[in-house]
């Protein structure tokens, strides 16, 4: 009887995930299929993503226009711009999550680690194994803190308790959450604060050791202190991961990113070192946007 | 635009306060040379007295600028406008202090007839005062061309300063009885030369404000 209930819950969760977070589910399933988890460890800064002549249409609507953008390893790249400028579309294109939207067409290419992600032979699951994503709203599974983090590795077939313990601790430490939850690992994750839940989602992402972490407004639902914690965490994470973050908070982009791209009406108006873009932008439209004259 | 209405208004207010500071300082500078030229002790004392008003306004500008930074978290041109306002206020306040120094020198000068031709020092003062005026105009109009003009004028001031100092040195050897006056003369010439340097800083600030890059106009 108990097993049946668990199975039922499991099924409910999968359905919930399918609705809330299909990308992550695919990612976890794929990692399980592939087995091995590997993380490249180049010392020099390389280009992780090279976007050239990227165009994207939603039906007739030309949403991304001739985008050229190089994203570097072990850096935080911020994408800013007013609503509807294409920044979320772009970040969702990086892991091909955009394909879930009907009537989407693309042209041009995005090369991730020397392979065009639009290649017929490139399996989307393979890409999403390397590219994790954190969303605006924290979305922990309705399970314990421990099980949330162990979820991915378990699907990969890791059953050894000690190995799982290590992964859970390492991931929670990596997400700067360990000290706060180490005494309640088996409590339901729903009892954590919003900021803690978001860090838990980051820990869950780290547990399967991605290469790139995409963040779509990860702090917009959080209070200022939790926001600062996540920002500090992002600074630390970039030592081991490449991070691309979409944010409406321009001060946040200025604080945490190395490079910033300003999107407007589907185009990249300016892409430069963050220090320069926020102190002395070259394009008048960038200046008008960051100083709050429009948008 | 409505989103920035208050901020734009505050930036304008900051600019107005700075221009007011500039105007008070120009007046002090003008009076100081008159006090010196006409040995007008009363006018000199008035300049010294009025300086506290300038100091207070400078503090007010700094406080307001810091408040704006805290409240608006400005970036790019807005941030430069505020930071440059603080820097310009500092330079102008220094210029006003030199006006006070000139006034004090005028008092110490005594009422003996001048041992030196006044023309060159008056000329030097005129140019320095004009540099301050142009600096303020360049700031108000954010005019880089005007700002650069100040640098050229500074060369003229430096040249005059050299001439005056050489003359004073020569006088010093032969005019023991005028030693005190000659000493005050050289101090005043030095004050005016410093005023011109601060005016040149105004020019540099304006270029940075507009271009976002540093230029050394003093070099």
Automatic annotation (TrEMBL), chain B:
It comes from Anoxybacteroides rupiense. It is found in: Cytoplasm. Keywords: Cytoplasm, Phosphate transport, Transport. Belongs to the PhoU family. One of its GO terms (cellular component) is cytoplasm. SUPFAM superfamilies: PhoU-like (SSF109755). GO terms for biological process: phosphate ion transport. Plays a role in the regulation of phosphate uptake. This is Phosphate-specific transport system accessory protein PhoU. Residues 18-105, 121-205 form the PhoU domain. Homodimer. It comes from the Bacteria. The gene is phoU. Pfam families: PhoU. InterPro entries: PhoU (IPR028366), PhoU-like_sf (IPR038078), PhoU_dom (IPR026022).
